[in-house]
Amino acid sequence: MSFIVVEDLIKEYHTGEVLVRAADGVSFIIEKGELAVVVGPSGAGKSTVLNILGGMDTCDSGRVLVDGTDVAALDQRGLTLYRRNDIGFVFQFYNLIPNLTALENVELAAQICKAPLDAEDVLHEVGLGQRVENFPAQLSGGEQQRVAIARALAKNPKLLLCDEPTGALDYATGKVVLSLLQDACRNRGMTVVIITHNLALTPMADRVIHIRNGKAESIELNPNPISVETIEW
Amino acid sequence: MRSAFVKSSLRQIKQTLPRFLSILIITALGVAFFAGLRLTGPYMQMAGDAYLEQQRYADIKLVSTLGFDDDDVSAIQRADGVQELSPGYSASVLLEQDDTTYNIQLLSIDDSRDTLNAPLILEGRLPQASGECLVEPNFLRTSGLELGDEVTFRSGSDDDIFDSLKAVSYTITGTAQSPLYVSENRGTNDIGNGHIDAFFLIPTEDFNLEVYTEIYLVTQEANSSFFSSEYLAAIKPTIDALTIVGETRSVERYDTLMSEANSELDEGRREIADGRAQLADAEAELENARVELDDAWAQLDDSASQLETGKASLNENKSAYSAQIASERARLDDGYAQLAAGRSQYQTGLAEYEQGEAQYQQGLQLYQQGEAEYLDGYQQYQLGVTQLQAANDELQQQKTLAFQQLDSQEAALDTDDPGYAEALAAIQSQREALTLQFNLAEAELTTQQQQLDATGLELEAAKAQLDETSQQLSASRAQLDAAKATLDASLQQLETSQQQLDAGKAQLEAGQREAEARFASAQQQIDDGQAAWAAGREELLTGEADYAQGMKEFEAERDEALLEISDAEEQLASAEEDLATLEPPKWYLLDLEDNPGLYGFKSAAEQIMALATTIPILFFLIAALVSMTSMTRLVDSDRTQIGTYKALGYRNGSLFGRYLFYALSASLIGGLIGVVLGYNVIPPLIFDAYGTIYSVPAIPVPFDIPYALLSIGVAVVTATVPALLVTRHIMHEAPAETMRPAAPPAGKHSLVEGIKPLWRRLSFLHKVTLRNLFRYKKRLFMTLIGVAGCTALMFAGFGLHDSLSTVSPKQFGQILRYDVQLDFKNDASDEDRAALFSALDSTNAADSFTTLSQQPVEAIADGSSRNVFLASPDNPADFQRFIDFRTSSDGSPISLDDQGVVVTAGLARSLDLEPGDSILLRDLDSNEANFTVSAVMENYIFHYVYISPGLYEQGFSDRPESNQILALLSEGSDSIPDSVLNMDTVTGATYMEENAAELGSMVGALKYVVWVLVISAAALVFVVLFSLMTINMEERNRELASIKVLGFLDRELAAYVYREAIILTVVGIIFGLALGVGLERYIIATIEVDSFMFSSDLLWQSFALSAILTAAFAAIVNIIMYREIIRIEMVSSLKNVE
């Protein structure tokens, strides 16, 4: 059985009188250790799917199996523990705790999980060995995002979910970030899911899932993903 | 567009309803508290004004040390500013009812309707006739008397009660309250225990006083509130004018009194002098009588001795005389015997003579016979005749001689002689014998003649013989004649001696008679003297008894008179002294502030006003801070929207208007609700609470526009101005910038991190918490201020409660340890005292007791004075068991010795006294003495100065007269038996338990204020915490969402938030408690009154309670917020642009 199985995922949002179906029967699988890229236009439901996959949101129907656990069936507490132990998140806007240093931000995450990695080591890995004591406000966007990645990695999660991780970054910085994610997948065998609207990134993925209008339009497998460094966009 | 704007605004309100409501509620609370409490003071004043107005309260009360006469009254009437006056009387009397002595102040009342200081009749009616009275309801409650009952007063001093009253029995016709006595405090006087228990109103006509004791007057200018400073200023000119009148009148009155008194004194002096003179006269009289009596006794004794002498000499004389008489008699008897012998010798001689005669005659006869015989013839005739003739002649001659002799004898007899008759008879018999003899002789001669004639012849013969014989005869004749002559001579001699003897005898007898008569008269005299002596003695004894009686009477009367005189002198002396110390009368002008009740009421109102200026401001400040924070947050959270509107081209004004509307509507609605709530709840609540102390009728609470406008205005300003400021600030930024959310404050190393050892020890999450705390400084301070402020307010409330409620247990439990206080007459005799003490001893009701002297005095230091009680325990060493002398500062024991006086803390504070300071005490008789303060003792109610008897004596040169017993009741007994209380010596008993209860009711009034404070503070702390928490949550939504995404469990997330909240709450509480202590102290300093000191004790319960309550409210808020925390939308929170 696949590491991640998403079946007929439906998610509706009610805003006043308006009903928006953000996910309208999304189905896909991702295997363990894969780097999956989810692409699609804005409002296609990528984030919704990712949020549900990450246990940040619930679905209205469908199944979301992650390593055999039906995330969709978990209650709030189950979801929280799931996020805590199995998921690492990287957001477009980093969402670092502004009041904590880089190290502390990593430690904050590492604190609560079962088998965390050493926070400082992880920061060294992401190339921030010299900036551990810096607060987010003292770091550049790329650095902040690297802290965010370090924070996610330090939890040693089963699944690393990244929502437009380069969306707020310039090209070069974005590349560094992406290569970090790729390295995490390659070196640690971590399953990584990256949401992006940038189709140029697809060659780096093992699996590319196209979402459009709340559905997984197509899923491509890429037997020879290339290194991020070699991708140009 | 306009309607869209309004719609948008309303929608915003709807969307942020909790915030809107929190601003509204906090505004309402602040305004209610502020306006309500603000109005309370003025409301109390208004109610007081209404009451005083209605009862025609007199602005000024005049009392004088010597009362007022009619001249005074008219002088006052003429003074500037005096509109109306009402002279009146008052007197202090005692009333016994059910073994309780009540100290009553009698006031005169006019029955006219528009009288000044009219009583407010609560029940019954005004007194209409003499002997009727109006009482206060409290008196009926405590005494158990009812309307229609009769009471009888007695004097509380040595003065006769009829000196001041015409009648002593009065029927209660009704109950009333008086504007003169709005509080429980009835003041003090100088009788009984000095505390007036109740006032009675009796008709003016029932007073029997020469001068008015007081004058009430209304001034012309006083139109403002009785409790305002304007009022005092308005009556000031009148007071000043009256002061001048008083000074003038004082001199005039003094002169009048002096001259009157002096003439009275002169009169008195004269009377005393008279009395003394009378006494001296009586004494002199008695002394004279004594001297006379003594003289008489001496005379009597004299006469007695004279009598004795007289008796003795009489007896001596008598015996001497008897001896003399006896010898005289013997001599006489001897004489008589000699005489008898002479007579018999004479008789013998005579007989011899007669024998010789006869012989002669015989011889002669014989001769003659012889002659006759001789002459018988011759010369018979011649011779015979011649012879015979011769014989005859001779005989005749003899006869004549004899008779002559007898006659001469007879002639020699003293007719007076008792022997006269005898002698005469003897002479007669002799004469008869002689006559017989002669007759015989003549007859014989005749015979003889015849014989002779016959014998003559014979004799012639015998003539020679005859001649011889004749010669013989002649010789014998001669012989015979010689014998005869001798005989006659001897007879004569005999007769003479007889005569002499008889005369001697007669003389003797006459002398004896005379002597006897003299003796008898002497005896008589002696007897008379004896009788006279006895009579004199009798008389003297009577005189002596009279004297003794007189003496006794005199002594009795003298003692009495002396007593009277000394009394009179004493009186005179004291009158003189009085007169010497008679100062010109001093007028006291008493205004509202001198009336303890009204002053208390005024102070209460001012206290509330003071409370209303400080506490609501703090309250308001917190509320304002919260609404300010809320509004700031609201505008801040809308910054992107503002930016958008601005970018869209909306004008600034309309954007201002949006938030103005929000703030205005919240604060206006809240303010209005607050004003209505505040006005209708707080003033009546507090007024009712004070109603238990001050009998001032309530009035409807007015809707005070200025306070309403002020409080709502301030509320609106504090809500809107920050909103506008923030809005303006945002507007000044470029729209593009505005459209991005404000950057959260950058993370920083907190100060705590500087302390490395500490920081290293902290767990990671604690570090995060600390850093977060310091990151959001505004929130930190807001929360701290809010929590601390509310805690402080609540604590101040509880603390006030403590300060009030701990007074009673401390005052009546710890300091005044005795259970009961018995007052007794300070002029009680030693016997009465001893009787009282032994009665108390024998009842077993009291474990032990002690005595002391207590009197009201004036304590003066640095020019200000306070009325205090001067107490001097008879046995200071033992006194600690009854009253605990301990310092107010640290509770260490104080000893009461001769070093100085111990003053109570309230007095020390009031007069700014410290140990070592000097204090002047002046008693009711104006005796003064300076003392050093040796210690300040803890005490809360009234001012006392404790003094050792020795020091008292040093100061006042007089021993203190004890008049109080303090007793500890024994186990199981709760009162002193009537047998003791009924004793005449005892004037009253006060149980500490009752005092404590009374105090409890007074304290109860302020407790309402306290509860208002506590409840308001509690509400405030709730709203404040809720608002701040909400704001906190909003501001940190993204952060919390991030953490949630990381997989923090709900409780971990909550703990992450709560940890900060808890720390802030705890620190806030700590600051709040500290602040609260200060606030409480400040409030107490503001509201404390002179004679009642609040305890500085703060119970740990108050700390605990205010801390726990604040913590509990914080917990409730946090629990409510828990739902918000766990419901944080991660997706939406993190989606936003940063």
Explain this structure.
The complex is a heterodimer of chains A (233) and B (1138). Chain A has 233 residues and is α/β, with parallel strands linked by helices. Chain A has a single domain, classed as P-loop containing nucleotide triphosphate hydrolases (Rossmann fold, 3-Layer(aba) Sandwich), CATH 3.40.50.300. Chain A is 29% helix and 28% strand. Chain A is globular. The relative contact order of chain A is 0.19. The model of chain A has no long low-confidence stretch (mean pLDDT 83). Chain B has 5 domains: 1-59 and 591-740, no CATH class; 91-208, no CATH class; 281-581; 776-813 and 993-1138, no CATH class; 826-984, no CATH class. Helix content of chain B is 66%, strand content 12%. Chain B contains 25 helices and 20 strands. In chain B, the strands form 3 sheets. Chain B has a 6-stranded mixed beta barrel with strand order 3-4-9-6-8-7. A 6-stranded mixed beta barrel of chain B has the order 13-14-18-15-17-16. In chain B, β16 (918-922) and β17 form a beta hairpin. In chain B, α2 packs across α10 (652-691), α8 runs antiparallel to α15 and α15 crosses α23. The longest helix of chain B has 162 residues, at 420-581. At the A-B interface, α2 and α3 of A face α14, α22 and α25 of B.
